[in-house]
Design goal:
With 154 residues, the chain is mostly helical. The longest helix has 18 residues.
């Protein structure tokens, strides 16, 4: 006996009709607020930023609650993955992103290019990057921005 279940069109329509409405990001955030950032959480982030395991440092680098001085230190980490997590973190300050745009790793520079909050001057610099991949990411992001600015055809 098969455990695969196939719903009829009528059943699928009934499920759609009775499904809950999707929440916007703002509504979901209001219903499920993030826990308060406490001093003990910041101390843990500082402690974990010095962990031997680069995956733990990556988690700290990706946290929106990581203090700026810790992000700065992690932006100079010997592990490319850690630097990449700093580069893609939307809470990373612009000055750190500017520095990471010069990183020796094309992967890190690519993450800078797709960071939503990267400054325009950095995007201009990355548009002329030595890596075809990084230049392609800049072009792709620019095409998304242009597409979003164009009114949708009816």
């Amino acid at each position: 006996m098969s455990c695969i279940r196939f719903n009829t069109p009528a059943q699928r329509q009934a499920m759609r009709a009775h499904s809950p409405a999707l929440l916007t990001a703002e509504q979901a955030a209001a219903l499920h607020p993030s826990p308060e950032v406490t001093e003990s959480k910041l101390r843990r982030l500082r402690l974990l930023a010095a962990a031997e395991d680069p995956k733990i440092r990556e988690a700290v680098a990706a946290s929106r609650n990581t203090p700026e001085d810790v992000l700065l230190a992690l932006s100079q980490d010997p592990d490319e993955g850690v630097r990449g997590c700093v580069a893609k973190n939307e809470a990373t300050p612009c000055d750190i992103l500017r520095t990471l745009a010069e990183d020796r790793s094309e992967t890190v520079r690519g993450w800078v290019a797709v960071n939503y909050f990267v400054p325009a001057d950095v995007m201009e610099r990355l548009a002329n990057d030595r890596s075809r991949t990084v230049r392609g990411l800049v072009a792709w992001k620019a095409s998304l921005a242009a597409e979003a600015a164009t009114p949708a055809a009816v």
